[in-house]
Amino acid sequence: MNIGAKIKVLRKERDITQEALADRLGVTFQAISKWERGDSYPDITMIPVIAGFFNITADELLGCTEAEKQKEIDEIMRLFEEYDTHGENPKLEELAEESMKKYPGDFRIMSWFVYAWQVRDPERAIETGEFLLEHCTDDHWRSFTRGNLVYAYKRSGNIKKALELAEGLPCYYDTRTDVKRDLLTGDELVEHVQNQCIDLAYEFWTGIRKIGEYYSPADRIDLYKKSNAVYDAFYENDLMPVSLMRKMRNYQGMAEVALTDGDTDAGLEYMAEAVALAEKHDALPPVVEVNSLLFNKHPYDRKWEYKENLELRAELLYDFEHEDEFYKNVRKTKKYKELVKRLKAE
Fold it and tell me: Distance between CA atoms of 91 and 126, rounded to whole angstroms?
C-alpha cells in the first residue's frame, strides 16, 4: 500500500473529510486529493506531521511496521542463502542491489552486498565493507564482511591490504567452531563434530586444487585419491549427494591430469569412474537418509545442492563434449563413445 492509499484509509477510518484533514495539516484539500490518488506525495517534512495526526509511527504511515520490516529482511536473508547455495550469482547481485536501496542502513544486507559484488565490482564492495567495519558492532557480520573484503581487495589488485585484513581474521583454533566442541554434549556435540568433519573434507577437497600445480602429475592424482578416501571414510556408502559430486570431480581431475600427461588408457578409466558416480548421484531420491557413522544426524535434502535438481550426468557430458584441452584426443575412441552413450541414457 502506498502512502496516499494509507492516508485515505486512515482518514476514512476516522470519518474525516479531505477538507478537514487539509485544514488540520495546513495544506490544500487538492493536495490531499492528489496524495490519495497517487498523483503526488507529501513532502518528506510532512511525514512525521501526518503520522502524528493519526497517532501512528512514520514507518506505519509508510506501510512498514517493525514486525513487517523484520519479516521482509528475514525473507531477504533466506533468499541470499538460497541463491548462494545454488550458485545463482546474477540473482544474488540483483537482490543485494535492490535490498541496499530499500534498507541502506541494515548491516546484514550490507554484508551480503559485499559478498555478492566482490567479484564484479570490488570497489563498491570495498566502500560498503569499510563503512560496515567502521560502524557495525555485531561480531558475526563484521567477521563475514572482513573475510569477503579480503577477496575484494585481492581482485582490486591491492594484495597488501588483502593480506593485512587476512592477518586479522581468526585462526582455526579458538574459533566458535573449535571451542563449541568443548562446550556441547550429547546429540548436539555429535552433530557439531560431524559438521566439522564435513568442513574438513571440503577444505581438503578444495585445497588440493589450489596446490596442484606444485606437484607432479603422479602426485596430483594421488592427492585426488586421498581426497576420495576421506569422503569414503566420512560417508562410507555412496549415498551422500555432495560426496558423490566431489568424488566424481576428483576422478574427472585424475582423468584430466592423465590425459594431459599422455596416458590415454588411465584417463579413460578415470573418466569411467566419474561416469559411474554421476549415475549413482542422479538415481538418488529427493531426500536422502545417510546412515554412516560420521554423518547420520539428519537427512540430506537435494534441493540444497549447489543447483536444485542437479544432474551430474548432464554436467559431466557437457565437460566431455566441450573441454577440448583435455578430451579432444580421445573422442574418437570406442571407450569415450560408450561413456557418452551412458551419460545420455534416459
Answer: 20
